[in-house]
Design goal:
single chain; mainly beta; five-stranded mixed beta sheet; 19 strands; globular
């Protein structure tokens, strides 16, 4: 049996509600229809940790191989966004990609646990979209700070679902009504319990913390005006609209957005394993002329 909690604004105040059919009900008896609610992120994390590659379809798309264990990056909390919140693409950027994902939410202090124990420390799950602003990939490929951590690029929601079994569940991303990503959680190399136990070896996880568990193949750029939905079986549908920011990224300081082979091959699905060694292949290769000679 699952229970879904949603955090919304009700009469101007943040209120935790429980979903009851199409209604969201607060403890004080007030209620609102799900389609009329103003949503907030369903949890308040102190950190958001994300795995790089996990779904085999994504690994195959990049023509690469997984290592013996996962690698991770960090999204700042200022990237948090909501169900039905706008995703901002700066006006001088072009390569904003969706990445439909499942978010693990920690329920209690978690440190140095086994995989078998991990489920006891998970409060529940929600839907996420790990947007990436690949225009900054040339400068932030290691940290992913601006690529994945720019403002608005971490929507979560619509609700936190307790009692959900992550095994054999369908995840799909839909852009303007067309399915663009679809996979099954059984095709992840490392499951939810593994990810929690792995991170908790070194980093204490606290109530509300979020771990993003990876995206399937076919992450691609979206444009202002596009509506992006991520739907997970049993968790619901997270919906966001892409908008153009009111101003560009400043040009008088710092590295600037680029449109290199690295940027385009990542945004359009090129290969990773041989970058810098030979001309890139994969789906992304059709979108640019490689500057590398075949070796």
């Amino acid at each position: 049996m699952t229970t879904e909690y949603r955090k919304i604004l009700l009469d101007g105040y943040p209120i935790l509600t429980v979903r009851d059919g199409d209604m969201l009900r607060a403890k004080d008896g007030r209620s609102v229809h799900v389609d009329e609610a103003v949503h907030l992120p369903p949890v308040e994390p102190r950190k958001v940790i994300c795995v790089h590659l996990n779904y085999h379809s994504r690994v195959d798309e990049f023509m690469t191989k997984l290592g013996g264990s996962p690698t991770y990056f960090h999204k700042p909390l200022t990237a948090l966004n909501t169900h039905k919140g706008d995703i901002v693409r700066p006006s001088n950027c072009k390569y904003l990609n969706y990445e439909g994902e499942i978010a693990i939410v920690i329920g209690k202090h978690c440190k140095n646990i086994s995989q078998e124990e991990a489920g006891e420390y998970i409060a529940g799950y929600t839907v996420a979209n790990d947007y990436g602003l690949h225009d900054f990939r040339d400068t932030d490929a290691g940290s992913m700070l601006r690529v994945k951590g720019s403002d608005t690029l971490c929507p979560l929601g619509p609700g936190l679902v307790e009692g959900w079994d992550f095994k054999n569940k369908v995840i799909r991303t839909i852009v303007n009504g067309k399915v663009v990503q679809e996979d099954n959680t059984d095709n992840m190399e490392w499951d939810m319990h593994y990810l929690v136990a792995d991170i908790a070896r070194n980093i204490t996880l606290e109530p509300g913390d979020v771990l993003l568990s990876g995206t399937p193949a076919n992450s691609r750029p979206v444009q202002p005006g596009d509506v992006v939905e991520v739907e997970v079986e049993g968790l619901g549908k997270l919906t966001n609209k892409i908008v153009e920011g009111p101003y560009p990224v400043r040009t008088d300081v710092g590295a600037q957005p680029t449109e290199s082979e690295e940027v385009i091959s990542t945004a359009m699905g090129g290969d990773w394993e041989h970058r810098g060694k030979r001309a890139a292949g994969g789906q992304g290769a059709q979108f640019y002329k490689s500057r590398l000679e075949e070796k």
